[in-house]
């Protein structure tokens, strides 16, 4: 059983979609299929049920997945032990983040860490908050970054490394565009553009207007911040977003939000059982020291034990 085949199996088992798994691990779909078939031949058991429209794990596949993460983690530990004997830090680090953070916050941190530890291979994946937590929990990701503070779980630790200012995005010709700041009472009659229920950006909106008894009308629900900002530019409504997510479109004005919860935390999440790996430990410390993107206000917090 080859380790690269096992890594590919874990990627497919996580996504239950060969196309998405191939994109995530940077392989052609044909290569992913060939590696899965080779692993099945080696184990003499089908790992996926391919009869339906959706890929499913067989019982044998589920049992392999139960062991796969531990096997891969032990492999990384072995690499780290060998690297420690030669006074180098090596291995692979899979980092995840919300798309906004991957595009703005994380590149400087990854570049700095990569220059300081060239033997560590870095991988970056963009995903939603729920998928990021699941990835850290399963071992598909070593560390992830997201807005907000995640729910407490026994196996996951998190630490707030920064706070990002919330702003209201308005069309450039809006009646409030000339103000210095904007608060709930200014927006009671304004149509708002929001993301779908369950999204972290939607949660920011719901939380911001929860305590004042003022809730603007929701005009549209959209699937992305980029789509929301394009519609703001067209005059379809306003939006509440983190400043770092604001586009540079000249047709949009962003004003600081002065209501409750005017800032949103940026959290770093990792698995407590894997946090002692040298590469993980060094990356966590690098993030604490270097994570100062944009106008965010870094804040040190004690991680959950």
From TrEMBL:
The keyword Signal does not apply. The keyword Transcription regulation applies. Residues 1-58 form the HTH lysR-type domain. Pfam families: HTH_1 (PF00126), LysR_substrate (PF03466). It comes from the Bacteria. Keywords: DNA-binding, Transcription, Transcription regulation. SUPFAM superfamilies: Periplasmic binding protein-like II, Winged helix' DNA-binding domain. Belongs to the LysR transcriptional regulatory family. This is LysR family transcriptional regulator. It comes from Mesorhizobium retamae.
């Amino acid at each position: 059983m080859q380790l690269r085949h096992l890594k590919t199996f874990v990627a497919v088992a996580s996504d239950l979609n060969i196309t998405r798994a191939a994109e995530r691990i940077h392989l052609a779909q044909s290569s992913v299929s060939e590696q899965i078939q080779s692993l099945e031949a080696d184990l003499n058991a089908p790992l996926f049920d391919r009869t339906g429209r959706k890929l499913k794990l067989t019982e044998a596949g589920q049992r392999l997945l139960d062991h796969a993460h531990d096997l891969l983690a032990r492999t990384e530990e072995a690499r780290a032990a060998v690297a420690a004997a030669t006074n180098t830090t090596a291995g692979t680090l899979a980092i995840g983040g919300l798309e906004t953070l991957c595009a703005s916050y994380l590149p400087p941190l990854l570049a700095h860490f990569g220059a300081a530890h060239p033997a560590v291979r870095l991988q970056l994946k963009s995903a939603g908050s729920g998928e990021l937590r699941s990835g850290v929990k399963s071992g598909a990701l070593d560390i992830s970054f997201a807005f907000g503070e995640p729910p407490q779980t026994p196996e996951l630790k998190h630490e707030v490394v920064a706070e990002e200012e919330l702003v209201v995005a308005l069309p450039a010709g809006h009646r409030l565009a000339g103000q210095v700041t904007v608060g709930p009472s200014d927006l009671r009659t304004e149509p708002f553009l929001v993301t779908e229920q369950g999204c972290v950006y939607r949660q920011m909106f719901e939380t911001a207007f929860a305590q004042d008894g003022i809730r603007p009308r929701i005009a549209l629900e959209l699937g992305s911040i980029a789509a929301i900002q394009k519609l703001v530019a067209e005059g379809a409504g306003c939006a509440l977003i983190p400043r770092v997510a604001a586009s540079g479109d000249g047709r949009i004005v962003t004003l600081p939000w002065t209501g409750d919860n005017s800032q949103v935390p940026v959290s770093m999440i990792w698995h407590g059982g894997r946090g002692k790996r040298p590469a993980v430990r060094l990356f966590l410390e690098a993030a604490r020291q270097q994570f100062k993107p944009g106008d965010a206000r870094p804040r040190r917090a004690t991680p959950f034990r």
